[in-house]
Amino acid sequence: MSIWRLLGVALLVVGLGLLYFGWQATEGLGEQVHEMVTGRYTDETMWYLIGGGAAALVGALLVLFGGKTR
What we know:
This protein is an all-alpha fold. The chain is built from 3 helices and no strands. 16% of the residues are buried.
């Protein structure tokens, strides 16, 4: 297994973790009140969701298309 695939697995795990914490944050009472008043989530929650999605996507791509072993 190449180092790129291992890095991809790590990024995928971290990304999925960030997505989970971001999703949990959207379910909180304070977050729901903020979203109801302003129409959007807080910046912190958005960074969890965006960062988690990006890390998971890059991780999945590295796992699928990472360097080949020779």
